[in-house]
Design goal:
The complex is a heterodimer of chains A (283) and B (183).
Chain A: H1 2-9, H2 12-17, H3 23-35, H4 37-56, H5 63-73, H6 102-172, E1 175-183, E2 186-196, E3 202-210, E4 218-226, E5 229-236, E6 247-250, E7 258-265, E8 277-282
Antiparallel strand pairs in A: 1-2, 1-8, 2-3, 3-6, 4-5, 4-7, 7-8
Helix pairs in contact in A: 3-4
Chain B: H1 11-19, H2 23-44, H3 48-64, H4 76-93, H5 95-102, H6 106-116, H7 126-134, H8 137-148, H9 153-160, H10 164-182
Helix pairs in contact in B: 2-3, 2-4, 3-4, 8-9, 8-10, 9-10
The chains are: A alpha+beta (283), B mainly alpha (183).
Chain lengths: 283, 183
Amino acid sequence: MENIKAYIESGVLELYVLGDLSSEEALQVEEMASQNPEVGDEIAAIELAMENYAMQNAVQPSSDVETKLFEKLGIKEEEDTIIASSPYIEEPRIVSLDSSNGKIRTLRFALVACVALLVVSTAALFITYNKLNDAHDQIASLNLDKEKFAGVVSQLEFENKGLDNMVAMNDSKEWATIRMAGQPFSPKAKMNVYWNKVDKSVLINYVAMDLPKTDEKHEYQLWAMVDGKPVSLGVFGKTDSTANEALQKMQTIQNAQAFAVTVEPMGGSVNPTMEKLSVFGGV
Amino acid sequence: MTALKKLTLTEPELVLALQSKDPAVLKTLYSMYSSALYGVISRIITHTELAEDVLQETFVKIWQSAAHYDNTKGRLFTWMMNIARNLSIDKLRSKDFKNSLKNQDIENNVSFVDEQNKVTFNPDVLGVKQLVENLKPDLQAVLDLVYYKGYTHVEAAERLDLPLGTVKTRIRLAIIELRRSFN
């Protein structure tokens, strides 16, 4: 009997129940159990303990497993499954609270990710839209600047041409410069006339004049005073015009003692309107 | 209690029906024991899909080899449990399982990681958990390895760097504690 007790206490029966013995060792245990009721009872007690332990640590598998299993074995769902008494009827059904279904969880994460993506996309779109608007505004203001600069450049070109001509005329010595000064009608006005001593041609330079603006129905007319009588040399346009050449050729005059400019109706007059005499200068 | 539609049979009735290949008995067997068996399988194999595969394989094997069960050698549950444990350990050591660890695709990863760190809040288990936690840590370490992780006692001895005899004694002491708590 001492041997039996030692055998039980060796722990081999627990390993037997846990399926942790070689088949030879297991056979020895079974032999011992059949010969000694004490060993058999001990095994039964261990089995019951492990069974209870397993029951209490149960985890509910997903219902898919049952469906697949019976499909695989070709067993149809039957309502009239056998119900009978058993010690386990007292036990409440063990349902794990951890019913996390991997697929549903995955889908939930996917949904959250989609919503987050949507929000980010919308925000990005909104920001991009604002930037595009800013860019449009910038392009518009840059265009405005460009036009302004183009205007300035053509104005500068125009003036430069006029100045070049003035320099050239001064150098050649063929040209006489007549400076005309402001008269009571427009005291601050001044203007130059260039008269060629050789071929008697007359030029005016828009750059070299400072006349007040005329209204739309009037323009300036240049006169030469020949022996006390005014002779028309032609009309010229607005002083701020940049569309024309800087230089304008007027009619030639063989002989003149002075030059004058008056304001006349469009097209010019036969005789000068002396009340509107703007500038006057002698040769 | 009748409201609880728990399908149950006594063990001799179950064995008889199982060995006569009555299809209805498998349903009963499944409803009685699937979660208990799955409790052990899912602690050995933490990957849910693979663990459920093993549970299915376990019941297929129970169904196909019912004739080999000998009730003089032990309880039906012990026999089923050993089938479940052996299949789990085979799966754990198979190529299949090792590949599945390598090939975790990204969408399964969250639940996979989750499973790896599984905390089961099973109110019915709390008492037992409490008891197991009251076990001395050295007893619990051995029981965990052999019962939950599918180690053999030889492997557990190597892992814990203990003599084989000590491991055996500790398994026995742990189970005696369990027995005491169920009485």
